[in-house]
Amino acid sequence: MSTYQSPKSKQKCFRQYLEKSGAIDSLTSALVNLYEESNKPHESTEYIKQHLGNSRNPPIEKQQQLLKENEMLDKENERLKQKVDEMTKTIETLKKNLNHLRAHSRKARDEKS
Which pTM was predicted? Predict the structure, then answer.
């Protein structure tokens, strides 16, 4: 004897399957990419086919752009680290000078007394 499943129940099961398998995320990503594309292709279905499943692996152009951006950020990070080091050294020098001046000032006050 077979069990009867309502169409709504079948739809719910199918939707859960699509969500668990990642199909909805992949489709959404491909459609969002198409929406954000400045030069819309004539064949939207071909575009979707090419970009389907690429949500985890972006197109080569995007990867290259991300690599360039990463390289630029690495250089900026290194430059900022050097600047922090220089400023830390300056602060240490200023602290030493301040302590020296305070000691000198105390010594001069003590001599006056």
Answer: 0.44
